[in-house]
């Protein structure tokens, strides 16, 4: 626990000394924004990864619906495009912003992960799982600061994987977004999470640099580069995405 908090503090210091971020692809940190009653959002993105010389590609489609001004429901469908290809575990969840005051907002994101991925292809756990994320957002002039901390529960149907892997994965991240103008935002994100394997003592750490282009009120385009900060994280990842909102 002390090691985890120390890593979190180091990442927070690193973030404060650098710059911007936002809670949309290509970033990891989630914001507290919601779609409002009757609002819909479709996010489609794809990422090219390279780790220890092995290349892969993944894609995700996320559908979000606003059911209250401060409450969304979403469906997240990740898909592996490289071999072995197929759906990973699909998740269903809520985003609830429960506090707003003077540029500060707080929220919770509970999530239920279904056992839809093929465990034999390493595309899923084989059993359902849950996740909970606590979100903080603070807006100050052209900058938006984001902070997440959360935990995931993984339950494997394979007894060997259940024995070798951690049941709970803790994670935290800090992000910043800088508004260049109404159309362009520069962003930076960084985080750490528990390594899935019990035998590995070094937790993966990453940093993401990206750009979001707001074409209009309903359409965003983005591009990002994710880089490992230590040997247990995926070496690098390049992604592009499209976000469309409608009622």
Explain the layout of strands and helices.
Blueprint: H1 2-17, E1 40-51, E2 54-68, E3 71-80, E4 86-87, E5 91-101, E6 104-113, E7 129-140, E8 143-153, H2 159-164, E9 168-179, E10 184-193, E11 205-214, E12 219-228, E13 236-246
Antiparallel strand pairs: 1-2, 1-13, 2-3, 3-4, 3-5, 5-6, 6-7, 7-8, 8-9, 9-10, 10-11, 11-12, 12-13
Q: Which strand-content bin applies to the residues?
A: over 45%
Indicate the radius of gyration in whole angstroms: 18 Å
Order of helices and strands: HEEEEEEEEHEEEEE
CATH superfamily: monomeric porin ompg
Poorly predicted runs = 1-23
- Strands, count: 13
Number of helices: 2
Quote the distance from N terminus to C terminus.
Answer: 44 Å
Helical fraction equals: under 10%
- pLDDT averaged over residues: 90
Using brief descriptors, characterize the structure shown.
about 250 residues; mainly beta; Porin; twelve-stranded antiparallel beta barrel; about 10% helix; globular; disordered N terminus
Q: Could you characterize the architecture of this molecule?
A:
This protein has about 250 residues and is mainly beta. The protein has one domain (about 1-245): Porin. It is about 10% helix and about 55% strand. It has a 12-stranded antiparallel beta barrel. The longest helix has 16 residues, at about 1-15. The relative contact order is 0.20. The model is unreliable at about 1-25 (pLDDT under 50).
């Amino acid at each position: 626990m002390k090691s985890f908090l120390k890593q979190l503090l180091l990442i927070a210091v690193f973030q404060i000394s650098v710059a911007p971020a936002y809670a949309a692809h290509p970033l990891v940190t989630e914001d507290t924004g919601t779609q409002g009653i009757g609002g819909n959002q479709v996010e489609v993105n794809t990422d090219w990864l390279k780790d220890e010389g092995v290349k892969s590609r993944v894609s995700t489609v996320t559908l979000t619906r606003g059911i209250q001004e401060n409450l969304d429901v979403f469906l997240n469908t990740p898909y592996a495009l490289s071999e072995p290809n197929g759906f990973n575990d699909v998740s269903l969840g809520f985003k609830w912003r429960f506090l707003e005051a003077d540029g500060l907002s707080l929220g919770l994101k509970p999530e239920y992960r279904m056992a839809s991925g093929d465990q034999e292809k390493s595309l899923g756990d084989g059993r359902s799982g849950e996740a909970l994320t606590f979100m903080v957002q603070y807006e100050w002039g052209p900058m938006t600061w984001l902070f997440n901390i959360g935990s995931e529960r993984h339950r494997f149907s394979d007894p060997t994987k259940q024995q070798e892997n951690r049941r709970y994965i803790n994670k935290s991240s800090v992000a910043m977004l800088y508004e260049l103008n109404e159309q362009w935002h520069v962003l930076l994100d960084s985080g750490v999470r528990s390594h899935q394997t019990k035998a590995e003592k070094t937790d993966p750490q990453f940093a993401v640099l990206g750009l979001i282009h707001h074409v209009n009120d309903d359409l965003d385009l983005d591009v990002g580069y994710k880089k490992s900060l230590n040997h247990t994280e995926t070496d690098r990842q390049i992604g592009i995405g499209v976000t469309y909102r409608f009622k």
